[in-house]
Design goal:
Low-confidence stretches: none
Shape: elongated
Strand content: under 5%
Helix content: 55-70%
Radius of gyration: 20 Å
Order of helices and strands: HHHHH
Number of strands: 0
Structural class: mainly alpha
Oligomer: single chain
């Protein structure tokens, strides 16, 4: 499960190495510069999402979204005010 930019960085780096690709090779396949890929693998939080997805595609990775379980309904911030009326 990916929760942070560092998790994304680790996943990309691991997948790249597992496939025996250099950063330059992956960058070329993804259509990005090597310096951009280096920033991705360092967990830079300010990278263009479309390029991150292009990099995932170049690695044969997919991304799915799953709702995280909540711990019940959020409390109504106005409940005490209305109760006092």
């Amino acid at each position: 499960m990916l929760k942070t930019t560092q998790d994304v960085a680790t996943a990309v780096r691991h997948a790249r190495k597992q496939r025996g690709l250099t950063q330059a090779q992956l960058a070329q396949r993804a259509g990005v510069g090597r310096d951009w890929l280096v920033r991705l693998e360092k967990g830079n939080p300010r990278l263009e999402l479309s390029k991150v997805l292009d990099t995932f595609a170049a690695l044969g990775l997919s991304l799915s979204i799953e709702a995280m379980p909540t711990q019940g309904p959020e409390p109504d911030p106005f409940a005490a005010v209305f109760k006092a009326l």
